[in-house]
Amino acid sequence: MPDEDLVELKFRLYDGTDIGPFRYSPASTVAVLKERIVAEWPKDKKIAPKSANDVKLINAGKILENSKTVGQCRIPFGELSKSIITMHVVVQPSLAKAKAEKKVDEAPKKNICACSIL
Question: pTM here?
Answer without folding.
Answer: 0.69
